[in-house]
Known about the structure:
The chain is mostly helical. The protein has one domain (49-510): Glycosyltransferase. The protein is 43% helix and 4% strand. The strands form three sheets. The chain has a three-stranded antiparallel beta sheet with strand order 2-3-4. A hairpin with a 2-residue loop joins strand 5 and strand 6 (399-401).
Amino acid sequence: MAKGVVKQRKSRRCLWCIVAIVILGGIAGGTFYVVKKKILDKNSSSTSSLEDKYSDALKIAMQFFDVQKSGKLVDDKIPWRGNSGLKDGSEAKLDLSMGMYDAGDNIKFGFPMAFTATVLSWAILEYGEHMEHINQREPAENSLSWITDFLLNAHPSQNVLYIQVGDPKEDHKCWEKPEKMTTKRPLKLVNSSKPGSDVAAETAAALASASLVFKKTDSTYSSTLLKHAKQLFTFADKYKGSYTKSHPEVATYYNSTGYGDELLWAASWLYHATGDTTYLRYVTEENADKYAKVDGPTWFSWDNKLAGAQVLLSRLSFFGDKGAKGNSGIDDYKKSADELMCALLPDSPSATASRTKSGLIWITKWDSLQHPVGSAFLAVLYSDYMRASDNEILSCGDDSFEPSDLRKFAQSQADYVLGDNPMDISYLVGYGGKYPEFVHHRGASIPVDATTGCSEGFKWLSSKKPNPNVAIGALVGGPFKNESFIDSRNNSMQTEPTTYNSAVLVGLLSSLVNTSSPVKSLNEN
């Protein structure tokens, strides 16, 4: 086994077709939801508190990580899932069996997987007490380490990072359960001659943030995570280049539009993890001019982390971080974060027009819920920073807003996801009285006892029956701009869930479970 390889640790908090053309009114095996009589959410009642609603939703959302796990499953809570990908990484003599599948297929993409870990870490660091109150911190940390174990093993030497397991082109020719995969599992990597600053920096951010999560409970593991994070950041910064330039074929699936945001994001997390002002200077001096100067707000997602970095760095300003004292560059990030918040607030004079009639932030028809959920998570973080630091006023032009306004916006986006929308449908599978039943997900669509090869499984893709297995906790892609939704397995644009969107949703729901103040330093956890 290669040097630095992490074996699956037993009992370490163990727990729990590209879219077809959409034709309104008739997709085989699906349902087109139109505005009809409201269906009441069985998880809510007139006497239920908002916190209870978000707690129930969080417990459901957390389970999707178990649905997506690869490897030898321990204490498996999903009855229709089993061991898979056990030989992943063997061609490089690495154990890459763990980690998570990105969406409804059987590929492990390192770029979005690392983002999943970073956001999940952020959620635990800020709202771990909220999670613990409803017994969800342990499953969150277990899911996080399931990814970080994979990322550690994917980094066998300082300037080498394995970024993909499986061939998506070949995988998409098949419709089969991960437990019964018949396709080959080739690997892709980035190194000094084939750089990938974006994926390496995102992985550095994931490991640095996770090192803070495990600092008190497993100091040895935390130190290992931080060591790899530092090496990966150095690698990303020294050998600059986009991983989709090094591997153009991956651009079809997870194209990177630039690596500057990941470098700033990673350095921000490394400063929080280490207190080393070298990382602070990295984000506020020359690199700020290179990578942080943009016109207007940006949208937080697996591809663009700049808005996340702005909010994370504004934390230093709100809480008077000693290392950031007198650093005008940090103030610039906070000003940008202020502008983003003003764009999100619907009554702000600079409010973005990119919304549905019902008020959902809407940027793209593909995976449309990623941006409103991400925006809401950043908004509630900012609200909590303002409230906890006694900064009660956000100025947007001539108007002023309070932390409660940002929280109200965040709740509106969460409530839309949970069923308060024109379709009266919960986009969180398993929550409410009505949610998608034809989720674009191989494992969920194929009966447990079915025997399928590569192509034979497509009969389950086109089946007119609902999925035999519930992809519990899945956040599907979401509605179109006109707020319609077509529940069809062939409609991957709207019905395919992703692990990284689930991480952001978990962060959002965790924030709404309670209203306790955040810690002043993430290093206090």
